[in-house]
Amino acid sequence: QLPLDDIARLADLHPKPGHIRFQYGTAGFRTLGSVLDSVLFRVGVLAGLRSKKLDGKTIGVMVTASHNPEPDNGVKLVDPRGEMLEASWEAHATSLANAASTEDFLQAVDAVVKNAKIDLSKPAKVIYARDTRPSGPSLVASLEDGLKAIGAETRDAGVTTTPILHYLVRAINTKGTSAEYGDDSEDGYFKKLSGAFKQLVSGKPALPPLVVDCANGVGANAVEKIVPYLGDSLTFIPHNTATATPGALNNACGADYVKTTQKLPPSLANELKSGERGCSFDGDADRLMYFYIDARNQFRMLDGDKIAALVAGFIVELVKNAGLEEKIRVGIVQTAYANGSSTKYLADRLPVRCVPTGVKHLHHAAEHFNIGVYFEANGHGTVLFSPETQGTLASYEPSTPAQSTALKHLRNLVQLINQTVGDALSDLLLVETVLAHKSYSGVEWDSLYVDLPNRLVKVLVADVRAFQTEDAERRLVSPRGLQGKIDALVKRYEGGRSFVRPSGTEDVVRVYAEAVMKSQADELAFRVAGLVY
Ligand code: NG1
Ligand code: ZN
């Protein structure tokens, strides 16, 4: 019962460009916006099928290329609980995107229907949103054609952040149930976050205003909109809010700029004085990097690892103070990119797991703890409270005033934290909560541990697929013999660690190295890169 004529007629309007092979990877489909028209149409059809497969639950579609340059764009699907698309469907996405002709596409759709045993009589419901990229409106129009072709009921969430779209998906699908996530509107999102934040910091001295670098992206809108909800509980000084200026998005600003250059965005050069803190969002506001200027006027970066250490320490303390140590196990999930010092600091305090790069791996591993904290070094992360733990927190009867206070804070954290995906705004409020509770400035936070100097380099190789890894990407199994050579090199460096892995988002191999001295970390990275090349 596929509406083959409708699909064919509309598919003809969105032909696939020849010679391009699309791949649904860790970031969905992502490439130049100008070549994505057919992909968006086909993703529309796929989103409808995914919804039908899940009995008409609402599926999300986000059109964004995150921290990438402005001409890029991308698209990813959001499953009903607000999480990334189930891994087994990534192959369906790739097969639909690469069908050469309309006829091939119809066959590919039919194959997905049969393979995934989809009941086409079920309804299809899809909500979609986009970031501020100039290519967004036309790509959304292509997506809408795909949704129309499959007969989906749609809701346009407009221009909004990736984490807000994830929130909306979960809120819609839990509406009226005992697991209701919040009102399914931006207003519901801002109310939920700001309400919890105000309770968490009530009675604490107000922190100095926070400089927020919005990467000239959609995060600027979210920051502006939450201001009235926050009242005087927190003051922002927003920067890089030029969402309509061509070429400005992620250009010399934003979380990825800060992480990869380990520098303050030039536009903030005169904004931060010694002792002051600030933070950067990425282009779709799902990554957060903090920084401050130290007493010697030097820029100091507080990355995802530092956020994880700050937040995990706070949560462990609250669990203990609430008297719930025996019932609630807090754990941390990192990737190989986590700074070695952070891993050591955390492993002394709680269980730490290392998983391959990609939010889906971190998220799933974090679900195995009662409270799972995950952050990538690049600033993407969140905290997950298992359903049982949320039940425990809801029903627990504290026996002292101190326990009661800690319990109240934990309950508010469940509301404050966007548990569907990394969320720069929610994570920002989380960090500010801990800083307020601990009376920390950037200096005290930074001194939890001292980062090992490190270096990340990209290597262009003839065949990226020749590089295969094991042990959460920390060791190469192929090309054969290479890992032995890396090991031999690493041994010669004090505090040395290095690994090589193929990127999941670019056609390159990445080399990471750290060592006790910056010059040594650089040298190690370049010598390992020399082995790879
Ligand atoms: P790849 O290209 O696979 O290294 C990059 C980031 C990941 C993650 C994904 C998804 C680094 C070194 N890698 O992956 O952490 O964010 O993009 O966007 O930062
Ligand atoms: Zn992003």
From TrEMBL:
<protein>
    <submittedName>
        <fullName>Phosphoacetylglucosamine mutase</fullName>
    </submittedName>
</protein>
